[in-house]
Design a protein that fits this description.
This protein is about 40% helix and about 20% strand. The protein contains 3 helices and 5 strands, in the order βααββββα. Strands 1-5-4-3-2 form a 5-stranded mixed β-sheet, with helices on both faces. A hairpin with a 2-residue loop joins strand 3 and strand 4. The radius of gyration is 18 Å and the shape is globular. The N terminus is likely disordered.
Length: about 140
């Protein structure tokens, strides 16, 4: 009879690191505590390969690679936008309070900023992966 490993002996996949683009971490730190908890939990789930129940694809981006989490507190709406499009990392692109009183659409200036930050994330990821690969090769020598 073959040996079968118990669940506790199977290595767990490593959580993906989170990189915060530009002022996103500082912006999140200004949010009310209940909002920070919701957004933090959503990002934690993304690190583990999951998806928060309130995460949804950001309009204007194909597929589910750029996600937003919307959290309401009192009469205010807060949003965090992050990407899971990179295989080995999560990038938080933008955290902001929606100021518009009409409609739920994300303002165009915020979409443009997210687009620029997504490009910054792509560049950072490529450099980071190159460095990770270099470190892995030097460890094997």
């Amino acid at each position: 009879m073959a040996d079968i490993a118990s669940a506790s002996s199977i290595p767990k996949p490593r959580d993906k690191p989170v990189f915060w683009i530009s002022s996103s971490l500082e912006d999140l730190s200004e949010f009310p505590k209940p909002v920070k908890k919701v957004i933090g939990f959503a990002i934690r789930q993304a690190q583990k390969g999951g998806m928060h129940i309130h995460a949804k694809s950001l309009n204007g981006y194909k597929g589910a690679s750029v996600l937003e989490v919307i959290a309401d507190h009192d009469t205010n709406t807060f949003r965090s936008v992050y990407t899971i499009c990179f295989r080995r990392a999560i990038y938080v692109l933008h955290c902001f309070q929606k100021k518009s009183k009409s409609g739920i659409k994300t303002p165009q200036r915020e979409i443009a900023l997210i687009g620029r930050r997504l490009k910054d994330a792509q560049e950072h990821y490529e450099n980071w992966i190159t460095e990770q690969n270099r470190e892995t090769q030097s460890d094997g020598e």
